[in-house]
């Protein structure tokens, strides 16, 4: 299948909810479950996601081999017409370029942008990194500020300097808490859309601060889409009402160290993937939290009954 990329130049990257796609595994060897992957991608398209972020942190890209990353991209491009943002794991320039070129070979013009993590607190280092990537690959960039994953903390003013110097950066993903503070400063200074993440935990305040939407892997993306759509059409109160029923689930899923396992098990409970395994060294889903999980999932299903 082919789809129309949602970005051709700065200012045209589509707002809304970009689902961050999990990578389902199966069996004792944790093989990529292509059937579950396709089912999950189809679900995002059916519920009206703007696009998909593939091979992100939630997609456990760092635990995948090069051939597995290629397989994931092939399955997603064959399954859905949604535009793709492809996550790049490497912080080093040459390795990142190799990852991007491999992704381009697998997904071609389906790639709207690649998501590159900030790799230094020094804006000049980041600028040189991004310029080298763009020169070598021609890719548009979503710049991700996620110190929990990258280990790099960068001041907001430095982020502004980076984006202002790199016209091929078409969006920012701001995941350095407090995210509403950063998003307010970024949207005031820049003309690119800024997205929140972190499971949607700060989404309402991020929208008030000027966010264009969310890029995240929350297990009830229907609620995030409804929230952003309500904000766009009717404002804060409508957005709040759309999100309120799932706030306990959002908070539950975002628990430190086990968020990945919790979210994948929630997707399994919903029937969107067959198994919820995470690859070591990621922590497994604690059995002691199952009762809470089922309560929160039941609340979400009652609010969004089209699919349990």
Strand arrangement in the largest pleated sheet: 1-4-5-6-7-8-9-10
CA distance, first residue to last residue:
28 Å
Order of helices and strands: EEEHEHEHEHEHHEHEHEHHHHH
Rg computed from alpha carbons, rounded to a whole number of angstroms: 18 Å
Tell me the strand percentage band. 5-15%
Give the number of DSSP strands: 10
In DSSP terms (H or I, runs of 4 or more residues), the helix count works out at 13
Write down the overall geometry.
Answer: globular
Unreliable runs, pLDDT <50, ≥5 residues?
Answer: 1-8
Q: What number is the mean pLDDT? A: 94
Based on secondary structure, the structural category is: alpha/beta
Tell me about the largest β-sheet.
8 strands, parallel, barrel
Helix fraction bin: 40-55%
Structure, described:
The protein is of the alpha/beta class and 308 residues long. Helices cover 46% and strands 14% of the residues. The protein is built from 13 helices and ten strands. The strands form two sheets. An eight-stranded parallel β-barrel has the order 1-4-5-6-7-8-9-10, surrounded by five helices. Strands 2-3 form a two-stranded antiparallel ribbon. Strand 5, helix 3 and strand 6 (111-117) form a beta-alpha-beta unit. Residues 1-8 have low confidence and may be disordered.
Please summarize what this structure is.
Helix content is 46%, strand content 14%. It is built from 13 helices and 10 strands.
Draw up the topology in text.
Blueprint lengths: L15 E5 L4 E2 L4 E2 L1 H13 L4 E4 L11 H14 L4 E5 L4 H15 L3 E7 L5 H15 L3 E5 L1 H4 L5 H10 L3 E6 L4 H11 L4 E3 L6 H6 L4 E4 L4 H14 L1 H8 L3 H7 L5 H11 L20 H14 L5
Helix pairs in contact: 1-2, 2-3, 3-4, 4-6, 6-7, 9-10
């Amino acid at each position: 299948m082919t789809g129309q990329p949602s970005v051709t130049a700065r200012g045209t990257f589509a707002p809304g909810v970009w689902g961050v796609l999990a990578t389902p595994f199966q069996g004792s060897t944790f093989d990529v479950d292509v059937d579950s992957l396709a089912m999950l991608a189809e679900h995002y398209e059916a519920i009206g996601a703007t696009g998909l972020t593939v091979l992100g942190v939630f997609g456990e890209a760092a635990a995948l081999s090069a051939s597995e990353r290629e397989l994931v991209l092939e399955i997603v491009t064959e399954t859905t017409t949604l535009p793709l943002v492809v996550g790049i794991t490497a912080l080093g320039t040459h390795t990142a370029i190799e990852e991007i070129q491999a992704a381009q070979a697998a997904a071609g013009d389906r790639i709207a942008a690649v998501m590159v993590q900030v790799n230094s607190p020094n804006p000049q280092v980041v600028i040189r990194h991004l310029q080298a990537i763009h020169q070598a690959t021609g890719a548009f960039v979503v710049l991700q500020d996620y110190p929990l994953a990258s280990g790099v903390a960068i001041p907001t003013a430095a982020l502004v300097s980076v984006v202002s110097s790199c016209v091929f950066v078409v969006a920012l993903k701001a995941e350095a808490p407090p995210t509403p503070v950063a998003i307010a400063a970024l949207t005031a200074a820049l003309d690119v859309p800024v997205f929140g993440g972190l499971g949607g935990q700060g989404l309402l305040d991020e929208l008030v601060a000027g966010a264009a939407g969310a890029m995240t892997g929350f297990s009830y993306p229907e609620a995030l889409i409804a929230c952003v759509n309500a904000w766009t059409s009717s404002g804060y109160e409508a957005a709040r009402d759309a999100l309120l029923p799932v706030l306990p689930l959002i908070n539950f899923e975002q628990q430190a160290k086990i968020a990945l396992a919790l979210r994948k098990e929630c997707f399994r409970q919903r029937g969107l993937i067959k198994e919820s395994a995470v690859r070591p060294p990621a922590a497994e889903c604690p059995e002691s939290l199952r009762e809470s999980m089922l309560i929160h999932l039941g609340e979400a299903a009652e609010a969004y009954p089209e699919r349990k």
